């Protein structure tokens, strides 16, 4: 049985000291980890060695990765620099990268390829803005992103996260049933029956059980609620309840 993925994206939060304190307090709350779960902590680059030193109950992820292994790319990070630190996963194409740093589907595709070439499993983020949703273009936008981002990508070593932009950091969660529907469409469009697809956008301890009860949602990518120990531990320890509606 595929494990449920509980991934935290710390974004540009936590100093090294704060990361150390988080891990110390977090581990006792999630161990022993249930065998049906995979926890991934995606910290800032400066914390990755600290996260790796305590990895085991959780795996370590980065928040981006460049397509070259070295070169004149000021401010970027190479795949080998991450793998050397024990990093196994890398978020690619997060909407904040696309929005604030001009990341395009073409660069996302190059980053995905480089990640896979160096044994990093990429977590590709896709999702629509509020304007696109209101215009009825949610499905077509996501299909466009998938078609371009996943060109020549190995679908066996990939995680996709559906993150509607209007639900990120806003407290507006996508209704679990709707997230489930879109995630089903994503898996169908990619054409890979066992592709893990996560939901991201204002996940918190109050809505995690309802989200994880959906049959097509394989896990969550959590921003704000992954920064606080109790809150992320509650998410990791979600209660698997089957809903009938
Ligand atoms: O962007 C996200 C995870 O990558 C979601 O962020 P929030 O959980 O803060 O809405």
UniProtKB/TrEMBL annotation:
GO terms for cellular component: cytosol. InterPro entries: Aldolase_TIM (IPR013785), TIM_sf (IPR035990), TrioseP_Isoase_bac/euk (IPR022896), Triosephosphate_isomerase (IPR000652), Triosephosphate_isomerase_AS (IPR020861). Pathway: Carbohydrate degradation; glycolysis; D-glyceraldehyde 3-phosphate from glycerone phosphate: step 1/1; Carbohydrate biosynthesis; gluconeogenesis. The keyword Cytoplasm applies. Substrate binds at residues 9-11, 169, 202, 223-224. GO terms for biological process: gluconeogenesis; glyceraldehyde-3-phosphate biosynthetic process; glycerol catabolic process; glycolytic process. It holds the Pfam family TIM. Keywords: Cytoplasm, Gluconeogenesis, Glycolysis, Isomerase. Belongs to the triosephosphate isomerase family. Homodimer. This is Triosephosphate isomerase. It comes from Gloeobacter kilaueensis (strain ATCC BAA-2537 / CCAP 1431/1 / ULC 316 / JS1). The lineage of its organism: Bacteria, Bacillati, Cyanobacteriota, Cyanophyceae, Gloeobacterales.
